[in-house]
Amino acid sequence: MDFDRDITMRITRLLSSAIGLTVAVVALPAMAQDDAAPIAVDTPARDSHFDGPYVQAFGGLSTRGSDGGDSLRFDTDGDGRHDNTVNTAAGANAFSPGFCNGRALGATPGDGCRSDKDGAEYGVRFGYDKRMGNFVLGGLVEGVKSEAKDATSGFSTTPASYVIQRKLDYGVSARARAGYTPGGGALFYVTGGGGVAKIDHDFLTTNTANSFDPQRGNKMVWGWQAGGGGEIMVARNVSLGLEYLYNRYSDNKYNVEVGPGTAPATNPFLIDSGSTNIKGSNKNFSYHSLRATIGYQF
User: Fold this and answer.
1) What is the DSSP code string of 220-264?
2) pLDDT higher than threshold 80 for residue 65
3) What is the spatial distance between Cα 125 and Cα 171, in angstroms, rounded to a whole number?
4) CA 51, 18, 26, 240 torsion: positive or negative?
5) Residue 130 and residue 241: Cα distance in Å, rounded?
């Protein structure tokens, strides 16, 4: 996985904060024992931490990272393979101006291209942990919404731009988690599992001659998640935490059928077979999640 410099800095700051808070909580009992007038530590409460059902809410940032090299793919001969070049009547590449990873801001590359958009994410989860000494095993089910967007644009010699854009509407996942607690009070864990998500798609173009028919969009797709985090108990039943997840969903069905519209038969999209099908080159919708959590242990 490739991280942009700013993403790496965010993750480092979040993990540093989590470690600092956790160390402080874990150290409290030892500090109390060293004090001349020791404060009573609620040992039974610590023994019950991370053992049983819980509910958590979370919020944070969905960040897209780097998708350098994304482009549009074309099927001009109708064989379903999206491995063709769209050529003009003179045989020149109609998309020679190139592609960009993001949303085109105009008809030409010179107009610029907006980078993929990071966005807020939020959700809720229900889980169950089983504690065995200082080791914890459990499972959870969660629902999430995200505002992050991913786009890929292409530019033709017309000039015109073509944009395929997508975002996660909502997702539902089930994950296992395994962790270590130093006598209660705090938990370090790794987590992973699978899920389904509804991916919303949009197609944008400055081409007003051809017709465009988006197909197989806004579908439920399968994916997986993996990551880790830390939690601390700030009250007998209340926890705060930080979490990182990498999310990947298979999203390779959406396509756009380009038809004649008002364009002549010599239109580059029509020369080979009377139409062209367009897809994005990246078959996966992937993003990073940086979250803060608050939970209640029953």
Assistant:
1) EEEEEEEEEEEEEESSSSEEEEEEEEEEEEE----EEEEE-TT--
2) no
3) 12
4) negative
5) 18
Say which residue, 288 or 41, is predicted with more confidence.
288
Q: Which of 8, 25, 288, 287 is nearest to 182 (CA)?
A: 25
Number of domains in the chain: 1
DSSP 116: P
pTM over the 0.85 mark? no
Q: Round to whole Å and give the CA distance between 259 and 267.
A: 10
CA 188, 242, 229 angle in degrees (round to 5)? 30
Secondary structure element (H or E) that encloses residue 34, with its range: helix 5-34
Beta-bridged to residue 250, according to DSSP, are 284
pLDDT digits (tens, 9 = 90+) for 75-103: 999 999 999 999 999 999 999 999 999 99
- Rounded Cα–Cα distance for residues 181 and 239 (Å): 13
CA 203, CA 201: separation in Å to the nearest integer? 7
Per the structure, the complete domain to which residue 17 belongs is given by 5-297
What is d(CA 42, CA 51) in angstroms, rounded to the nearest whole number?
A: 16
CATH of the domain at 214: 2.40.160.20
